[in-house]
Description:
This protein is α/β, with parallel strands linked by helices. It contains seven helices and five strands, in the order H-E-H-H-E-H-E-H-H-E-H-E. The longest helix is centred in the middle third of the chain and has 17 residues, at about 55-70.
Amino acid sequence: MVCIKSILTLGLVAGSTAVALPKNDTLPGCGEVNVFYTGLPPYHKYVLEQGYPGDEAAGAIKNSTRELINAGYNVRHTVFLAGPEQPMSVTEDRMKGRHWHITGVGYCVRGSTNGEVITKFEDNLMLFRRQGPSSPTVFNYNPWTFLWSVQRRAPLSSDCAGQPGTDYGYEEVCGEGWCSNPTK
């Protein structure tokens, strides 16, 4: 009986100490994390079909990008807004020349029910693995949650208020008429 209690106690102690949280001195600082996010343009037909109002999505994507930068992350948001009609070479060109610590794919790509868009999602994941095999890929759950998606996988060592990251560019690469509001 004593042996079983000892084994159980040892198991509980080992289980409770198995995962150490990173200390603040090991976390990256302000401006030390490069983020590459890709997704669909806010007025793309597949975004609109999923129920997101284009004007609202456009504002949210741009504000979320600014929020990431203000939080201390270096961002290429080219929420690389390329639909399935854009070749992967376009995204690959935008990734060249920089180590990306975090890559991300927007919800309207990942949550799509369209086979072309899901193929684009898979192609993005394969590209991200080639470009940064040890970099985590994150996913938001709407156009307002880019910061949430990055912070949970790459927290910074301190509050970066007043020490923004670098804006590596915001770009929308679209098929004809898909970057502007079709109702205006």
